[in-house]
Structures are given as C-alpha cells and as structure tokens.
C-alpha cells in the first residue's frame, strides 16, 4: 500500500489516535504504549525531519502520559548524538563532493604530463641526475615507470651522460662445451642449448634467410658472450644470456663487432645490453692474422665508423671505412709503406682517433688515424716500447705503459694529438711477479690499472693505495689470453 506524504504533525496526530489490540502488542501493558513505539520509530527513521528545534518540543507535547515523556528523556541523548553524527557525515559528504568537482576542473585544464610533474614535485634536471646514477640493470625497467622517465632514459643526452659514469670491464666469449652430449660437442647448433637470445637466429629472422643460408654441416663453435667487471680487486662475472658463433673483432662505447657466421658471411654490430643489432656486408677478404678492425665515433658527422686495415700478399696495407648505417665500404688511402710491421694488436680509440701499436717489439712510435680526417700519422712514444708494453684508453685520453728499468713501470698519458705530448702520470715499483705483466685496460686516470700475467691471471693496481691485488675470479671462466676486449656496458645505439 502506498504511503501518503504529509506534514510532520500529521504523523504524530495519526500516532495519537492509533489503537492496537493489547493482546497483539508486546511493548507494554496499556493501549497507549503502541503510540510510543510509533513515535520512536518515526524519530529513528526520519531524524532529519523531526529532530529540529520547535518540532522536538511538539513531539514531546504530543506524547500522552508522563511515562512516555519519561521515555523521551531517556532516548533524547541517543537521538541528539545520532543527529550530531548525521550532521558530521553530511558535512563530510558535501566537502568530498566539492573536492571532486575541483579536481575534475583541474584535470580538464591540465595535460597528463603536467599533472604527473605536479605529483612528483621534482624538476626534470633533478630526475635526470637521479636516474643517471642508477645501474644499467635498473634502467632497463625504470624507463617504463612513466612517460617522462621513458623520454629521459631514451634521450641521447642521458645515454651519453650515463655512459660517462659507467665502469670499464672485459667482454669475452666463453665456449659452450660443458653439459652437451659428446655427439654434438664441436658441432653445436643454435637449438642445442637453451638460451634467451641467439645472434644468428636473430640475423636469419631479420633477413628472412632460408635454411640453406645457415652455417654448413660443420659449423663453428657456439659461445656465450660474458662480461667481467673488476672493482676493488674483485671480479664479478655477468651474463648477457646471449650466444654467437663469430669472434669479436672490435668494441667501443658498448657496441661490439662480431663475425657473421651465416653462409652469406659479413659482420654484425651488436649492443649486447639492448640486443639491438645490424648486419653489415663484408669488405675486402683477408686472413684474420693480416687484418685489423677498429670502431670509433666521429664528432663532426655524429656517426660511428668501422675502420678495416688489411694486408695483401705484397705486404701492402689497404684501408676501407664504413659508416655504421650505410650499406657499403669506402676505400681511403692506407698508411704509408713501412709504418706497420704487423696488425696483431687491437687498436684503441681515444682523443677522437684510432691508435695502433705497429710492431711486436721495439716500438718507437704508434700509428694514429683521426676518424674525422681519415688520415694516418705517426706519433712518437716517450720511451721505446717493449714486448710487454701497451697503449690503452685512460679516462678518455690515451695511456701508455713502458719499462725503462727492470724494477719500475712508468705510466704516461697523451691528452691531444696536437698538444704538448706525453706526460708521465706516475711510476710503479715492480716486483718479480710484475716483470712479464701486460696492461689490459684502465678504469680511469688515477683509478685501477688491470694487468694480465704470463699464466693468464689478472691483477689490479690501485694508484691511491699503491697496492697490487690479484683479481679474485674463477680462472675457469676466464677466456683465452687474446680473446677479451675492454668494454663498457651502455644503452648506446649507432643511430645516435
């Protein structure tokens, strides 16, 4: 039955005239007590309409009998408390609605990026400097935190800023032989080992190669690409979970150049961290013992260049250069005859040029080629270099280790090609174990200098502490003597 709506007084009038059979009521023993139940029910279900000023008095006056008035005084504190809570709830709801309306208006007037920045309360420069201090492993996931972080991490400015903070280590190839059946040992295919990323499989996918372009029946060995980080005399081995079949030919700024062992041959430029790669065609064919690859960056053209030196049967050394991203090699003038005795040492890129040690022993100069002018020149050494002396990158400059005395090693630095020449940085008093050590790489100008011993052990010399420590690393994980290269992990791409 539909309830009729009327004034509040009508509810109380009807409650005064309502009679209920005493046999059916259970609240009291008189016929008037059902009216009390009616009034209290009205107070509970409609407090907003009846618990106000004069209306409260009208309710009390409308109650017949002192007993009901006594009951009202008993219920009045509870009703007053409920009214206060009701008012508080209504005020909270009203305030919440006002806040929601204001936020809705602000959201309509702001771009999503502006709203994000207002929440972070940090300028972009602060975020840039904070993220630049994160390790490379964290950057791979941090870039997906928000749109702003993604744009910062992928910007060329940030990538090179993070590169300058990264430490140098050793990258090398570790043969996959343990745990393989003897039937496939030495004839490993990509599908023989469970891996996360295969260079050759990716190349075949990129170039849509058919099966007959895969390696021959007797393919080369399969290798894991690994990285060794040396810090405070301790070596930490890191995995890329990446395999390849080709040897490493050159490294620079986090990029490596590999042999392409597919049937078409060629080379592969790869960043093992981002797994971005690009196959490039093979240039002039030569024996691995009579050629040399060097990778560098040209600041004028903002492009990475791959330099290939090769020696023919007449011992003439030719040179060809490829801009990474192009499709062909350019032939340029090679070094003058007589500058090179052999091409066995890996070139070093520093001070905007590639540098070669031209002979096995008794080197009085090095051969340099600035990658912007692409011309070869001879740079005299401060001392005659012996069979255990090497050049290396040293905080962006070119370093050189020489032994003029049996008990002393001198460390030199060249800051520019047209400057004042070589400067001696410091000397190391040698022990018997250091006589046959060869410098491998340097972390910084005054940081650790890593040496390799005759038995393939690694030692780190700390100039500040004047302390030589043997690197604590599992020797079984170390590569062959000449198969590792100085390397720094980065997000660098040849496109920037």
TrEMBL record:
Pfam families named in the record: F-box, FBA_3
UniProt cross-references to PROSITE patterns, sorted A to Z: FBOX
InterPro entries for this protein: F-box-assoc_dom_typ3 (IPR013187), F-box-assoc_interact_dom (IPR017451), F-box-like_dom_sf (IPR036047), F-box_dom (IPR001810), SCF_F-box_component (IPR050796)
Biased composition (Basic and acidic residues): 1-14
Gene3D superfamilies: 1.20.1280.50
Coiled-coil residues: none
Segments crossing the lipid bilayer: none
Positions of the UniProt region annotated as Disordered: 1-31
Domain F-box: 116-163
Protein name listed in UniProt: F-box domain-containing protein
């Amino acid at each position: 039955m539909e309830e009729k709506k009327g004034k509040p007084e009508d509810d109380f009038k009807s409650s005064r005239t309502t009679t209920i059979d005493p046999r059916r009521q259970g609240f009291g023993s008189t016929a008037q007590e059902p009216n009390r139940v009616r009034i209290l029910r009205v107070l509970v279900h409609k407090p907003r309409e009846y618990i106000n000023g004069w209306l409260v008095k009208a309710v009390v006056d409308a109650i017949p009998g002192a007993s009901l008035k006594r009951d009202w005084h008993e219920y009045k504190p509870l009703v007053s408390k409920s009214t206060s809570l009701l008012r508080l709830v209504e005020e909270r709801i009203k305030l919440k609605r006002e806040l929601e309306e204001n936020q809705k208006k602000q959201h309509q007037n702001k771009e999503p990026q502006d709203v994000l920045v207002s929440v972070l309360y940090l300028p972009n420069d602060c975020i840039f400097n904070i993220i630049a201090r994160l390790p490379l492993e964290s950057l791979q996931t941090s870039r997906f935190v928000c749109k702003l972080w993604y744009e910062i991490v992928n910007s060329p400015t940030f990538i090179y800023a993070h590169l300058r903070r990264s430490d140098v280590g050793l990258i090398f190839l570790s043969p996959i032989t343990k745990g393989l059946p003897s039937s496939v040992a030495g004839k490993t295919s990509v599908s023989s080992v469970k891996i996360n990323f295969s260079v050759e499989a990716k190349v075949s996918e990129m170039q849509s190669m058919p099966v007959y372009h895969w390696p021959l029946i007797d393919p080369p060995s399969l290798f894991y690409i690994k990285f060794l980080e040396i810090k405070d005399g301790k070596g930490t081995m890191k995995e890329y979970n990446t395999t390849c079949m080709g040897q490493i030919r050159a490294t620079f700024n986090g990029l490596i150049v590999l042999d392409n062992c597919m049937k078409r041959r060629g080379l592969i430029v790869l960043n093992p961290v981002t797994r971005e790669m690009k196959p490039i065609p093979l240039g002039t064919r030569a024996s691995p013992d009579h050629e040399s690859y060097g990778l560098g960056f040209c600041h004028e053209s903002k492009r990475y260049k791959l330099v290939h030196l090769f020696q023919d049967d007449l011992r003439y050394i030719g040179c060809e250069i490829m801009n990474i991203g192009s499709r062909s090699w350019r032939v340029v003038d090679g070094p003058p005859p007589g500058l090179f005795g052999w091409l066995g040492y890996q070139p070093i890129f520093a001070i905007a040029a590639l540098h070669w040690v031209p002979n096995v022993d008794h080197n009085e100069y090095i051969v340099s080629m600035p990658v912007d002018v692409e011309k070869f020149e001879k740079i005299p050494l401060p001392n005659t270099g012996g069979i255990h002396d090497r050049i290396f990158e040293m905080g962006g400059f070119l370093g050189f280790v020489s032994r003029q005395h049996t008990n002393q090693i001198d460390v030199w630095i060249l800051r520019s090609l047209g400057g004042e020449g070589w400067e001696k940085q410091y000397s190391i008093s040698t022990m018997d174990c250091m006589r046959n050590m060869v410098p491998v790489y340097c972390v910084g100008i005054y940081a650790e200098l890593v040496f390799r011993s005759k038995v393939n052990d690694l030692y780190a010399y700390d100039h500040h502490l004047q302390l030589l420590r043997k690197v604590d690393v599992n020797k079984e994980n170390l590569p062959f003597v000449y198969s590792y290269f100085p390397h720094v992990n980065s997000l660098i791409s040849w496109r920037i």
